[in-house]
Structures are given as C-alpha cells and as structure tokens.
Amino acid sequence: MALQFTYSNQDFVTDLRRPSGSGSGMASPPTTFDKTVKAGWTDRMHRGILRYHLGDLQTRILPGRHGYVAQLNIQRGIERRKPQEILSIQQQFNAKQFNFNKINPEEIIFEMIKHTGGGSAVRGNEPLPRHCRMIVLVNVSPLEFGHCLFVPDPSRCFPQILTQFSIQVGIESVLLSSDPGFRMGFNSLGAFASVNHLHLHGYYLDHELKIESMPVKPLVPEKGFYRLMGFPAGFLFYTESEGLEEVSRAVCRLTDFLVDGNTAHNLFLTRGCPPSDCIQNEKEHNSRKGVRIAVWPRVSCFGAKEESAFNVALCELAGHLPFKNKQDYDHITEKDVMDIIQRYLLPDEEFLRLEQQLTAHLMDS
Length: 365
Fold this sequence. Notes:
Layout: E1 4-7, H1 32-46, E2 58-61, E3 69-72, H2 74-79, E4 108-114, E5 121-123, E6 134-138, E7 148-152, H3 164-176, E8 182-187, E9 200-204, E10 216-220, E11 225-228, E12 235-239, H4 244-260, E13 264-272, H5 282-286, E14 290-298, H6 314-317, E15 320-323, H7 326-331, H8 334-342, H9 348-364
Parallel strand pairs: 1-4, 3-15
Antiparallel strand pairs: 1-5, 2-3, 4-6, 6-7, 7-9, 8-9, 8-13, 10-11, 11-12, 12-14, 13-14
C-alpha cells in the first residue's frame, strides 16, 4: 500500500509572505507536505522512474511588463507521452486508452487523506475511506522540479472534468505548502489535457508570476469571484483557509457551466495577494495568506497542430513558458508570446457575454 499523508485544517500555512526579490525563496521552513513531495519526487528521479533527469533549467525573464518566465525544457517536448485523441470536452473515460490505473506503482509518492483531527502524519497501512482518496504521483515527463499529478481515486475512472473535491484538494495542497512557488493547475479536454482521466498538476517554480498580484475587477466578491484586469483575459477566485469550501463550490459551478457550454478552460492555483483593483503597497503586494484560482475560458483545440515554441495551457497562461527548442527560447519577445496566446483566447464579445452569464449564474447559486 502507498504511503499515506494525512492532514487537517490545522496544517494550513495561513501567514505567508513572499520575500522581496524576484525569486520565490522560502518564507518559512518546509512543511511536512513540502518535504514529502520533494523527497518522493527526487527519489523517483534518482531511481530512473522519470523519462529523463531534470536538472536546473535554463531560465530567463523576458523583457516587458508581463515578466514572462521562460524556461528551456527540450527533453519534455521529445520524451513526453503522445497526447490522446480528444474529440469533445465531455468525452467519456475510455479504459482501453492510457490511464492512471496502468502506471508503474513506483510512480506513486503517497495518498493524501484529510481528517478532522489535528496534526499531519505520514502513515503506513491504516484503512481510510475510498471516496476521499487523492493519489499523488510523479509526472514522468516533468516540466519543473517536483512536478506531480494529483489523481482523485484512480479506480473510479473519472473523465477530465473537475469536481468540487478535486478543486478543494488543489486549494488545500497550496495551503499545505510554505513555499510561495508551489503551484497547482488543470487543463480541460480541448485545452491541451493529454490524458482523459481526472488529474491536476502540481509543481514548484522559484520565480514570481504577475498572476500572483494582478489587479482585478469584482464580479461576485461575496463568492470570491473577480475578473482579471490584465492579459490574458480570464477570471479569478480568491480564498484564504476559512472560506475554501464555499469557493471550491463556486469554482466547480463555474467549470460545470463551461463544460455544459462546451467551452475549454485552464485553471492555475497559486499563492497570491488579496484581490484589489489597484496597485497595492508593498506589505499587501507581498502577502501570500491566500490562494488565487485563475480560470481562463479559451478556444478549443481538437487535433490541432501544436505550436513550435510552446503550447498554450495552464502554466503558459499564468506566465510560465516551458520552451521546446532553443531558437524560440533565445529569440522570442513578449509581443511574440502575447500573439501566440491571443490565438487561443475567446473573442472579446464572446468573453464579455460569458462574463455576464457566469456572474448571473454565481449570483443565483
């Protein structure tokens, strides 16, 4: 049986700040969650379970106001598993295709189990309810250090459509980390998800992203729902530890609405400052007490030709650009990046119509 990591609300890091400077740094000592993820991931890499050894990636910050974090990761482009053929955002799970019930068991780092008692622990073989299982396994084609996949009970064979449980555990995972560089994310079908078996991504990126502090416009603030005021156009939820269940429910209502409307989407979860419609002072800007959940509705891609430089998925929309070749990495400009991303965004009129629909939908809930 896999190692079990148990946790409760008492384990959330509720007073975190981003140190001054461009890197994320470590605001406080690593938590049990961080130690377990990093040690398990490093162990699998050293044992050759990953498809390639991931060292320090060549990184540069593109000049310009967006501060794009470009990284050269040629091996991921070459070695990663060929994406499945996706024909619909609501495509059913197919047990004959690759799924996470077919992986090497050695890829599993631990199971996450939430309980109502205090304290966190890593335990051996205590039986726990199956409905709340979240399996954490290494991504064998990692894009950054600690890149893992979070899979809700693989045996239940959920398709790649978000559930409230998966959203809530994603938020909780960010809160369990004391590293402001720990990120979570999700690609829907038609938004460069490569496997139709419900999973989220988690990884560490030691660079600040603009999404952490981007100004927002309130839409339904009592539900933690805002519109991002910068590029690319999208929506934002914000929660601290106290309100995460209600915000998880609201995020799920939004993504269900998108799925029902056959609208592809990407999510990115990161520590971030509280929502504001203006530039904040340094103390507010550096606060990382809560979690920002960005949601980008986007143009669907079914069997589309991939971009040569990078695919537009969860991390690229957030400002983290893993490049597949050195020429693009060396020469691309901020404008080039924005032009590529713009091709995958909804037209302005369609986005504004969706904003009105989602605002009304969440206000009624």
